[in-house]
Each structure stands twice: as C-alpha cells, then as structure tokens.
Sequence to fold (381 residues):
Amino acid sequence: MNTETLELIAAIYDAAAEELGWQQVLDRITSYLGAGGITAFALDPSSGAIPISLTSGIDPKEMEDYKNHYIDKDFRLKLIMETKLGSVYTTSDGMMSSYDYAAEPFVREFLVPRKYYHCMGAKLIQRNQLVGILGIQGRIGDEFGNAERNLLTPLVPHFGRALDIAIRLAAVMEKGQLVEAALDQLNQAVFVLDIVGRVQVANKFAHTLVARRDGIAIVPGGRVAASGAAGARLEHLVREAVDFANGMRLDSTTAGGSVSVPRPVGRSYAVTVAPLPRRKLTIGGKVAGVVVVVVDPDMRAPGQHSRAAALFGLTPAEAAVADALAQGASVTEIAEARGISVNTAKTLLGRIFTKTGTSRQGELIRLLVLTSANIDTEAPA
Fold:
C-alpha cells in the first residue's frame, strides 16, 4: 500500500467527526482517482430519506435536483444494493450492455446533460435501515477500469467505517437538538452541565435571564454563578451534584438542593440543582451530569396550582403551598401571605411530603420544579 493511500485512510478517519474534513478528503479522492465528482451518502431505501450527503466536484444544486427528482430513476442504486458489501463496481463490469445503459432515462436526462457518463462505486455499510453508498462520476469519455478500481478498493472498508461513525454522531447531534428545542419551550431557565460542572446547554429563557444581569450569570469557565452567600451556596450544591455524577457520592437525594438568589428588583430567583442519572444522558454528544433550574416567581404561569394538584393529588390549599415553596418562599412567608398560622402551613407541608414521597423541603422543591415545568407560548421578555 503506497504512502498516498495510507495518508488518505488516515484523513478519512479524521474526517468522520467533522463535516468540513469530509470535504477535504473527498476533494483529495476525486483528484486521486481522476474523477469528475464524488458523492457519499446514507440512504433509507424504504423512505428515500438521505440523512447524510457529502459531495466533491458536484454542484450542490445538482445534488438537490437529484434528491428531489431523479433518485427514483437512478437504476444504479438497485444494482448497488445487490452487490457485496465493500466490493467496487464500475460501468465496464457488464452490469448491463452499453446500449441498455445509454438508453436508461436517468443516463439521458440527468447524467449526460451534466457531462457525466461512466461511474464507479461501492456499498459502504448496511446498518438498520440505512445503506451507505459511494458514487464516483466520470466525465463523458473517461471510463473507469481496473487501475481506478485498484486505487479505490483499499479505501472502501475504511470509508465505510468512517461513514458509520459520522451517521452515529449525526444521530446523537439530532437527539441533542431535539432536547434543546424542547427545553426552549419552558418558561423556566434550564442549564445542563457536564460532569465537571460546565454549562453545555442553556435554554432560551436561561439566555434571557443571564442577559438581565440581575443575579444569575455564566462566568469564565462556563459555570453558573451568583454573588454573595447565595453564590457560595449555589457553588456548593453544584459541586455536590457533580460529585454524584462522577461516582464520588452514592446517594442522589443528598446531592444538590435549592437556594434563593436575590436580585435588585423583583422577588428572588428560586434555584434548584439536581444530579442527572449517572452517565446515562448525553446532549450533543457530551455526557450531561447536572441540571440547574431557575424559576422567576414573577413569571408564574396560571393554572400551576391545578397542575400540582393533578400530578400529586394535592388539595387546592396544599397545591398553593407547594407552588409558593417552588417559587422560593419560606413556610413563614407562606403563612403570612395566606393568612394562616405557621403551624397550619407546616401541617399542609407535612401532607405534601406524604403525597409526593419526599421528606425534606429541598427534595420537595427539586421535585416540584423538575416535574411541573410550564410550557411557554411566548418568548420571555
């Protein structure tokens, strides 16, 4: 195997994690084979969906035209599906007579007008419902033979493995984008931290809240922070949750908690920190370890009392207390606001503990915040 082939194989694996790297690799292979253009894509034959498409030497508009109007006419796809995984085919292999090939509508309507004719390719992978295909186009008059086949064959298995990696990464990124889109619908600020405490995802309201600069910030190093005693408490809670995410703390119920963060105008933010299931959640390909949820009590959505009551079977009075706790109020403040005694408020709190299966206020607040998120129908101001 010559040096250029070895360098191309190394570049193929380097490109698997970055789409821009693919472009450079395909350009090099196009030149290496003396081809007119190259296409590598993953195809779902049942639906015609193409989740990944990479090209070199082919106008992006031509590729879109192919996907939208000609893919169903491309007879070569069926031939590729029937070939052995990893084997290289060319139009000179006798897959059909030259007369029949020239008469195919796809050749006459798509290839020839674009100055293409002969082709070479391979089935790279077949995983679940996806088939990875490599197609190499030759210009009219340029026919692929054994020399080009011998150049391409050593690259095919490596190209297949790299494309499989790219497909898996694309699926992970898509899931991460779906999670982020869902988080953006909440009118609570949500920060998802990695297993060292750095922010990996912040929803739309979290960005809005940070931009206010009135109590919550993301400081250099990517950490959620606040000032004063509340900031020290927040840092401690995040550290506890991070310790659990890294296996240094066994009991998740003692990791994390809640803190009230004052701000210059308006009621204090209610901040809850909770560890996530250990190394089981990923967003955008990174392990998520901790979630920090910030509630702005001045943005309470209507109907939250009934939501808490429905979730945990609370009475209206119990739901009102639970709602106030989730917004950062103390038992004494709740009693004063509702015109009841502190003992009555504590009795209601005890009933809430029983119905929610919790035993501490921090644990209860975390449960209420994480399970009673409101869906926002308007962008936060």
Summary: The longest helix spans residues 156-183. The chain has 15 helices and 13 strands. Residues 3-174 form a domain with the Beta-Lactamase fold (CATH 3.30.450.40).
